[in-house]
Design goal:
Blueprint lengths: L28 H9 L6 E3 L5 E3 L1 E7 L4 E10 L2 E10 L4 H14 L17 H9 L6 H12 L5 E4 L9 E5 L4 E6 L17 H24 L3 E6 L4 H25 L2
Parallel strand pairs: 8-9
Antiparallel strand pairs: 1-2, 3-4, 4-5, 6-7, 7-8
Helix pairs in contact: 1-2, 4-6
Organism: Nonomuraea helvata
Protein name: Very short patch repair endonuclease
Keywords: DNA damage, DNA repair, Endonuclease, Hydrolase, Nuclease
């Protein structure tokens, strides 16, 4: 990053677009904000009456001063509220969002949302992960499906690859015999991001271990039946995940075409 006095400091020229603009194929906005803030629960603004609103950070370029300013935004009573946080000078949008969230916390603009009494989670972060990754059509799934569709790939959603295996995959290419699973970090025990709950610890340990064993069994059964299984963690970049799936589909179709040509 350029420092004061260096040639090319942002006072002398506009910052690169990558420092404030969202790039094509990036993760969903809410996922981007969650990651930068350090978790969904870290994005809460306290309202009156013990209520909370989910906030986001907006980066704006002011061309006259050649500066990027960060603003905290949230909705209250149907109206968008906004608060200036700070100027940011990092080289990437991700770094600038992280810095803006850090400053918002330091200035007391945000608040930790308390857990409801009935919650079995050990922290707001664990609860958000548990709630956000239960069913189908999660944000990571939707982002992946959108990119696959843009690449001209057609698929079935939330379908059983095989009738005799009563388990559904998130994206299924029937003709190519490819099953894609988008696994949530909490429910499937991600080695990078899974944080075990300290409430009812034994119950949750058995639950997650059972899910992992079920995942392994499903993969093994599908592979034995001649399917290709692709597992993607929810934290993976959607564009990279779509590339991974696309490469597998392309390879399988080329192999099939080569085999068909050789047999004629």
């Amino acid at each position: 990053m350029a420092r004061k006095g260096d040639e090319g400091h942002w006072k002398e020229r506009l910052p690169a677009e990558r420092a404030y603009k969202r790039r094509a194929g990036a993760v969903a906005p809410s996922v981007e904000q969650d990651r930068a803030a350090g978790g969904r629960s870290r994005r809460s603004v306290a309202l009156s009456g013990g209520r909370f609103a989910r906030a986001s950070i907006t980066l704006r370029l002011y061309k006259r001063t050649r500066r990027i300013r960060a603003y905290l935004r949230w909705s209250q009573n149907g109206k968008t509220e906004e608060r200036y946080v700070c100027e940011v000078e990092r080289d990437s949008r991700r770094e600038n969002l992280v810095e803006a969230w850090r400053q918002a916390w330091a200035q007391g603009f945000l608040a930790e949302e308390p857990l409801p009494p009935e919650s079995t989670a050990s922290s707001p972060e664990v609860r958000a992960s548990m709630r956000g990754n239960r069913g189908k059509d999660t944000e990571p799934e939707l982002a992946l499906r959108k990119l696959l569709y843009q690449r001209g790939l057609r698929y079935r959603v939330n379908a059983q690859p095989l009738a005799e295996i009563r388990r559904k995959a998130d994206v299924v290419f029937l003709a190519d015999r490819v099953a894609v699973f988008v696994d949530g970090c909490f429910w499937h025990g991600c080695p990078e991001h899974y944080r075990p709950s300290t409430r009812n610890a034994e119950f949750w340990r058995e639950k997650i271990e059972g899910n992992k064993a079920r995942d392994a069994e499903t993969t093994e059964q599908l592979v034995a039946a001649g399917w290709t299984v692709i597992r993607i963690w929810e934290h993976e970049d959607p564009a990279a995940a779509a590339d991974k799936v696309g490469h597998v589909i392309t390879r399988l179709r080329l192999d099939a075409a080569t085999t068909a040509t050789a047999s004629t």
